[in-house]
User: Which sequence fits this backbone?
């Protein structure tokens, strides 16, 4: 009995006729997907069985795509060409999932040797930029008419006990250049833009930075005042104290940021990327950061090393919990600015910089642990209040289309009974 609505046999009869007309009567090949075919994809009416198949308009290609090859009976499967998919994009260096700050470099293109290559690149970059920082000293020597320019430059940049404004500018510049050196080395080696060295949000979060400064400034003012009372300076106020105060106000925040970008940002991200577990990477990066930051100040005294390491650990923990360097820059910058203001105004400029002869006391270490711990607690409290996101989240973009589904490998023409 025919199906009046379609002009074909009912479904059971059409299926039996299909099996009979194919080259695989067992049904193992062509009948597996028969029930999933749309009705218009079935074999035409049996009354047309004796007619020749339609002639192809073009010969099939080497892959079998094309219309009916000549001489094939009805039921020959025609494979339609697959849809044209867009070319695959290269893998992005950015993480493809949420990442904490110390693992920002663990993206699809991360390799274990890249932190080592990054280290080999950041060192010459930093030295080249530090060499350029000598230019203001040379200009000052030419302007003042120094008879021996080389000796003037060496004395101005290395005589820490009698450091003047020109030498102070050089020291600040030699640390500020760590910002571009750190960012460029990560960008060149890892392919991640330098702004993600500032924070997981891709840049400095200025409102959050100002909030951190406002929270810890009173605490650090009390800490600095107690230190001044405990150790009253005996050396006189420096000669160019007004110029030094202006340099402190304008350049010391950037100098503190330069140290944070390298000793916290660069070290934490490159060392932390070596470890798949975030907590292991955090501990390892904090140890390397604290040791490198302490030894860079050239003091062998254990109390001084411990005091400096307290700031390093507190800043590193703040970078992990807040997802950026803003809290560390605030802590480091406020500490340096207040310290320099005290020694410039009240005396003690010759002892302001930590060196090989600097010594400390156990009480200094206790006070450093206390003030850095309280400052870290205040910063984490504020981060929770404002709902600060502490991890990188890939941008949510709509998925690209996967293309049109391929047509079934069967003829789609349905013939009606004449």
Assistant:
């Amino acid at each position: 009995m025919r199906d009046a609505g379609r002009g074909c046999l009912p479904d059971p009869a059409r299926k039996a006729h299909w099996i009979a007309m194919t080259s695989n009567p067992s049904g193992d090949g062509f009948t597996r997907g028969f029930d999933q075919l749309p009705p218009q994809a079935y074999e035409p009416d049996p009354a047309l069985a004796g007619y020749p198949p339609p002639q192809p308009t073009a010969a099939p290609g080497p892959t079998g795509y094309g219309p009916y090859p000549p001489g094939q009976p009805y039921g020959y499967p025609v494979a339609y060409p697959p849809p044209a998919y867009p070319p695959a994009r290269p893998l992005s260096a950015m993480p493809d999932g949420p990442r904490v700050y110390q693992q920002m470099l663990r993206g699809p293109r991360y390799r274990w040797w890249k932190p080592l290559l990054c280290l080999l690149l950041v060192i010459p970059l930093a030295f080249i930029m530090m060499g350029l920082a000598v230019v203001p000293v040379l200009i000052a020597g030419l302007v003042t008419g120094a008879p021996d320019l080389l000796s003037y430059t060496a004395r101005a940049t290395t005589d820490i006990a009698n450091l003047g404004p020109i030498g102070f500018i050089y020291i600040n510049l030699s640390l500020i250049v760590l910002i571009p050196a750190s960012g460029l080395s990560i960008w060149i080696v890892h392919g991640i833009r330098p702004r993600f060295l500032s924070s997981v949000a891709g840049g400095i979060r200025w409102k959050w930075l100002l909030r951190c400064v406002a929270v810890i400034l009173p605490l650090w003012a009390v800490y600095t005042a107690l230190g001044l009372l405990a150790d009253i300076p005996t050396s006189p106020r420096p000669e160019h104290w007004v110029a030094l105060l202006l340099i402190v106000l304008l350049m010391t925040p950037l100098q503190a940021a330069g140290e944070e970008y390298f000793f916290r940002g660069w070290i934490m991200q490159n060392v932390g990327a070596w470890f798949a577990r975030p907590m292991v990477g955090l501990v390892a990066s904090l140890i390397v950061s604290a040791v490198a930051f302490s030894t860079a100040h050239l003091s062998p005294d254990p109390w001084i090393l411990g005091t400096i390491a307290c700031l390093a650990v507190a800043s590193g923990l703040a970078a992990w919990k807040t997802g950026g360097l803003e809290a560390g820059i605030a802590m480091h910058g406020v500490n340096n600015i207040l310290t320099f203001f005290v020694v410039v105004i009240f005396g003690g400029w010759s002892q302001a910089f930590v060196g090989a002869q600097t010594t400390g006391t156990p009480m200094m270490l206790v006070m450093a642990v206390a003030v850095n711990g309280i400052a870290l607690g205040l910063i984490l409290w504020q981060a929770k209040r404002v709902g600060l996101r502490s991890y990188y989240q890939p941008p949510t973009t709509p998925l690209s289309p996967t293309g049109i589904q391929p047509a079934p490998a069967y003829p789609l023409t349905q013939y009606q009974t004449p």
User: Anything to note?
Assistant: The two ends are 17 Å apart (CA to CA). The chain has a mean pLDDT of 81. DSSP finds 13 helices and two strands in the chain. The chain has two domains: 11-48, 99-392.
